[in-house]
Design a protein that fits this description.
Residues 12-428 form the Glycoside hydrolase family domain. The protein is mainly alpha-helical and 443 residues long. It is 45% helix and 4% strand. The chain has a single domain (7-437), classed as Glycosyltransferase, CATH 1.50.10.10. Residues 65-66, 68, 70, 206-207, 305-306, 412, 416, 418 line the site of one ligand 9MR.
Length: 443
């Protein structure tokens, strides 16, 4: 890729960084092991929680979501999905790099604990407010388990249904995953007459509430259809969109999972309509990239919180498109444009910054990350959010577009790491590395 680093090096460092996010019994000692308290309804005074008679659930384990210690189903599900997608497309590569399925399995085991007996899924577990910049074992405020939401059921059903495709010793038993997926799907089906959303409380930590739950539900029903072949799930998929076949309506991320839904439906049925959706999106991405000085496919209005994640996700989509495209010229364009998204993240950008910690030339040094800041160590392989025009953290001026970035520990809206930022980057770098090894691409 350049003289020193290969795509494989990026894959290797980004996938291995997940171990630094392990919650429970981890390399830092134990953290967040006490059962979480089911959050009481309505308002409450956090300091009085211990006096209330509340249910408790063991939801230990899983990855800390980001620079904070929350654990959230939306990001867990989309991250597991993207790691598994890489393993699905490139099984030989996955076999050579067992850490990929091991990390997915680690998170999956936690996700299963987040499901209630009725099939519903708790949205997140976190303290009432974010803790200070301390190590995880110092974060001892009560862990709260947030309401079962419609979106959590959908994210969970989709990711667990997809996980049933894998036969790995690292995974929980397949029957258990299968059963969990179906139960979440049935729960969702029951609570979901059109437009009906069940929202969780937020308190003072991350919301991860998608603007519309529809693309997440479509994704869930698409994966359940792919898993079971049962037409009822396909009918639900279509019914969500007023009987229209699903379309790709945004870049892949927890906000919008339409691309994953369309991919699943195409894989299951081979319908030309879905194939064209993917190829049309790939063409659009290539045009945007061609219009940009650095070949980055992000448009002006896409330099928002987590923009790097979307650049990587565009690369991911191009690799998917190349898989189903039989025109050699197009395939080459898709691969080279995917590679440009990776180069953008590595420093071919207006800031000359490598957005991955501890890697490459001029990397991020001060990520918003509690363990990094509290321990004053460099954790390598963390992708930060990247340029954000809105500057919600107030650490740098808003309105700077692709230059809206500051390498400061407080700058959480452009310089925080999150598990779902690394996910498309693991896919993109791993996919390009696997293709290169297989002789499908040369440069
Ligand atoms: O550390 C928190 C980070 O994970 C979130 O993305 C961000 C926005 O919700 O909030 C950070 O926490 C800050 C809090 O919101 C306000 N007090 C300072 C906290 C640390 O910077
Ligand atoms: O990555 C998330 C981004 O897409 C949202 O716009 C933003 C505001 O809701 O939240 C980001 O996620 C943060 C979460 O809310 C709290 N923990 C840290 C996450 C990464 O900054
Ligand atoms: Zn923890």
């Amino acid at each position: 890729m350049n003289d020193i680093f290969t795509e494989y090096d990026v894959f290797d460092i980004t996938i291995h960084s997940y171990k630094y996010q392990h919650c429970g019994t981890s390399i830092y000692g134990e953290c967040h092991m006490k059962p979480a308290i089911i959050r009481p309804n309505g308002d409450f005074i956090p300091s009085e929680l211990s006096r209330l008679e509340l249910g408790k659930v063991d939801v230990s384990g899983g990855w800390h979501d980001a620079g904070d210690y929350g654990k959230y189903i939306p990001t867990a599900a989309v991250t597991v999905y993207q790691l598994l997608l890489l393993a699905d497309l490139f099984p030989v590569f996955a076999a050579e790099n067992p850490v990929l399925l091991e990390e997915a399995a680690f998170e999956l085991s936690w996700m299963l604990k987040m499901q209630d007996d009725d099939g519903g899924v708790y949205h997140k577990v976190n303290t009432y407010d974010f803790c200070d910049m301390v190590m995880p074992d110092m974060d001892t405020e009560p862990q709260l388990l947030y309401e079962k939401s419609s979106s959590a059921a959908a994210y969970f059903a989709a990711a667990t249904a997809y996980a049933c495709r894998f036969n790995s010793n690292a995974f929980p038993a397949r029957e258990r995953i299968y059963d969990s997926a179906i139960r979440a799907g049935n729960y969702l089906k029951k609570i979901l007459p059109p437009d009906y959303e069940v929202l969780p409380s937020v308190d003072r930590t991350g919301p991860y509430i998608p603007a519309g739950v529809d693309t997440i539900c479509i994704w869930a029903f698409a994966e359940l259809y792919r898993l079971t072949g049962d037409r009822q799930w396909y009918d639900l998929c279509v019914s969500i969109n007023s009987m229209h076949m699903p379309v790709i309506s945004g870049p892949l991320g927890w906000e919008n999972m339409s691309a994953a839904a369309v991919w699943a439906l195409y894989q299951e049925d081979g319908t030309a309509y879905y194939r064209e959706q993917i190829l049309a999106e790939a063409e659009r991405i290539c045009r945007c990239s061609a219009d940009d000085d650095f070949g980055c496919a992000l448009q002006e209005n896409e330099y928002l919180w987590g923009s790097n994640k979307f650049a990587a996700a565009y690369g991911l989509l191009l690799i998917l498109a190349a898989e189903i495209c039989d025109d050699t010229v197009c395939r080459k364009l898709y691969y080279s444009t995917a590679s440009k998204q990776l180069k953008y993240i590595l420093g071919n950008n207006a800031l000359g910054k490598c957005f991955i910690t501890g890697f490459g030339n001029n990397p991020v040094c001060n990520p918003h990350h509690r363990i990094v800041q509290a321990s004053k160590t460099v954790i390598p392989g963390l992708l930060v959010g990247g340029p954000n025009n809105s500057a919600e953290d107030g650490c740098y001026p808003a309105g700077l577009g692709k230059l809206g970035y500051a390498d400061l520990p407080e700058a959480y809206s452009c310089n925080e790491y999150a598990v779902d930022y690394n996910a498309p980057l693991v896919f993109l770098s791993g996919g390009l590395a696997a293709l290169k090894k297989g002789g499908q691409i040369w440069s």
